[in-house]
Specification:
31% helix
Length: 137
């Protein structure tokens, strides 16, 4: 994701990212930023907004990494202080975000499809899909 979009999320969700990307890579991979395309910005923003609301000021998680893997979004976090109910709500939010990424172009955010037609699973719209004739999959 572009640095300007990453900075916007780090600033907007200071409770979830108190140190932004300035974290120890041995403990937290957000030091590498958001490892996915700009097209999923809205999905991540929506997830972080809802997670902040669920956590309120009472509960705390440590977001370890947000990235693309196998053509979809992955959100990893550690629970610091949460009830079982809050943990279940967070799991549901993660699943919602991941499911949305399966149908959203990672590049532009338009409707997309997850395919493995180039040897690498990716979720892209027809405009951003670049099929290769060499791939014999």
């Amino acid at each position: 994701m572009k640095k300007e979009l990453e900075d916007k999320l780090f600033k907007k969700y200071k409770k979830l990212f108190p140190n932004g990307s300035n974290v120890d890579p041995r403990e937290n991979l957000m030091c590498f930023g958001f490892s996915h395309g700009d097209g999923w910005y809205k999905i991540v923003d929506e997830f972080l907004k809802k997670a902040t609301k669920i956590l309120n000021e009472k509960y705390e998680i440590d977001i370890i990494q947000i990235k693309e893997k196998f053509g979809s979004l992955r959100i990893y976090y550690d629970v610091i202080d949460c009830t079982e109910e809050v943990i279940l709500m967070l799991r549901k939010l993660v699943m919602e975000a991941e499911n949305k990424s399966f149908i959203t172009c990672e590049v532009c955010g338009e409707a997309g499809e997850t395919r493995n037609d180039t040897g690498w699973a990716s979720t892209l719209c027809n405009k951003h899909r670049k099929p290769t004739e060499e791939w014999n999959g």
